[in-house]
Amino acid sequence: MAGSGHENGAISIRPADNLAVFEVSKKPKKNKFALGCAMLASLTSMLLGYDIGVMSGAIIFIKKDLKINDVQIEILVGVLNLYCLVGSIIAGNIADWIGRRYTIVLANVIIFVGSLFMGFSVNYAFLMVGRFIAGIGVGFAIMGAILYNAEISPASSRGFLTSFPEVCINVGILLGYVSNYAFSKLPTRIGWRLMLGAGATPSVFLVFAVLAMPESPRWLVMQGKLGEAKVVLEKTLDTKEEAELRLNDIKEAAGIPQDSTGDVVVVQKQTNSNGVWRELLLHPTPTVKHILICTVGIHFFQQSSGVDAVVLYSPRIFEKAGISSSNEQLLTTVAVGICKTIFILVATFLLDKSGRRALLLISTGGMVVSLATLGFSLTIINHSEAKLTWAIVLCITMVLSFVAFFAIGMGPIAGIYTSEIFPLKLRAQGISLGVAVNRVTSGIISMTFLSLYQAITIGGAFFLFAGIAAVGWLFFNICLPETRGKTLEETERLFGNLVGWREVDKKMKEDNTKGATHGQEGSE
Q1: Fewest beta carbons less than 10 Å away: which of 3, 49, 262, 492?
Q2: How does it sit in the membrane (predicted)?
Q3: Nearest Cα residue to 372 out of 291, 296, 305, 298
């Protein structure tokens, strides 16, 4: 970090160690302003969760009403993720152009229009148009929320605040499941349309709520608005000292001289984002290359382990397990949503205490066991002519176990980790790339699951997911450094050596310890 030593009373310590001292010596309370901003930014993500949850039950009635087959169902369910891919890529550039806040506002407007199209659909083609529009909006929403939360969060609670989009997605999934059950009593042609159209209502409120948030301080600095950025940093970070140091970090990353202290300064801007994408994909440094591998890996394994197959097709899974009543299938699905929501809430309080790596490895290990056992129970049921109550109970238990392990680690950490590791000038495009990998993988899984289990049996499909999750566990253990408690700028130093990052981490801890010691000596 550039700049001269900072003084606060009798304390005089090196700038590179300042934030480390603040974080080690103090355990500040949660910043309520940052908490409120993160919650508002994340609420739009709830609409993605609602779409995922509601579609799992709506397809039962859509299939009956529109007389469509399983392939059309797969496309209808999964295509939103591919449209979301387009939205997330566009949103990376939009977020740098109009700001993080207005990107989230635009997301709500697009989702509102898409939900209305789906709610008033008269045929399959019209429904697909609605899915396209909503998918673009969802891509904007996910990218905008993750980026915004990472950039307004203090290092001491960044995991807690950045996990909010995943929390809201899970709440949305639960609301979608409840909506399925509530509207399932209506006539078929009305019920599923109300299920899908109800997603438009929250968007109206969220457009105005998001406008009450401040803009991201990092985006403000990139626009040369240092005065506004400083005000936001002082409100969202734990101390004024941390705000000053963070502002200096952002200025350095944005290429602004440290002696530029005016409220508004001129910043050299690129005429387009081609240079950023070139640096990110075509000519990456060893550090950026390591970050890219981790980003692609964590998002790929998050979705390829089959979570959307479970969440989107849970009524079909329970039908294969021996639960024949659609009413009972939907009720059991609500239990899945409740379980997933409870454990994502637990995860928000563990992320900044236990660290990303520990939770991720525990989560993935539990998912492997749950998926393998689920595959075993479904295989037993599939090969038995009699109804096996113990196998049905085991199947339901393993579905609940799987979503619980996913929610406590793999679910929130993919987004948090990606938002922490990219350099400032690559962050928007890097996060959009992660979201793109996430959504296209999810789309492939959700668009092929029915065909997959028909080809290799439903038990075989979950054995396959278990194997993929096991490979993911090895990847995480070898390649992903711990980022808990580090500033976004410090995190960048951990990357550059795919399997040798542990030595860098050890040295950083030693340096921080020395910095804390020097700070204590200077105050005596």
Answers
A1: 262
A2: Multi-pass membrane protein
A3: 305
Q: What is the DSSP letter of 157?
A: G
Query: Is residue 400 within 8 Å of residue 343, measured between CB atoms?
Result: no
Residue type, 295: T
**DSSP states of 340-374 as a string?**
HHHHHHHHHHHHHHH-HHHHHHHHHHHHHHHHHHH
Amino acid at 242: E
Contacts 24+ apart (CB under 8 A), 317-321: 317/378, 317/395, 317/399, 317/458, 318/395, 318/396, 318/399, 320/378, 320/381, 320/382, 320/453, 320/458, 321/377, 321/378, 321/381, 321/391, 321/392, 321/395, 321/396
Q: How confident is the model over 197-246, as pLDDT tens digits?
A: 988 888 888 888 888 889 988 889 888 888 898 898 888 887 888 888 88
DSSP characters over 455-482: HH-HHHHHHHHHHHHHHHHHHHHHH---
CA atoms within 13 A on the CB side of 355: 9
- Angstrom CA distances, 174 to 114, 167, 177, stand at 20, 11, 5
As a whole number of angstroms, the distance between CA 103 and CA 98 comes to 7
In the chain, % of residues over pLDDT 70: 87
CA dist 130 to 63, 110, 116, Å? 17, 10, 7
CA-based R_g, the chain, Å: 24
Q: How far apart are CA 23 and CA 25, in angstroms?
A: 6
148 by DSSP, 3-state: which?
Answer: helix
pLDDT at 23 over 80: no
Q: How many residues does the chain have?
A: 524
CA 28 to chain centre: 25
pLDDT at 347 over 60: yes
pLDDT tens per residue, range 447-456: 999 999 999 9
The whole-angstrom distance between residue 283's C-alpha and the CA centroid of its chain comes to 27
pLDDT score for 382: 87
- pTM value? 0.76
| 228 vs 456: CA distance, rounded Å | 58
- 1 three-class SS: coil
CA distance linking residue 160 with residue 347, whole number of Å:
8
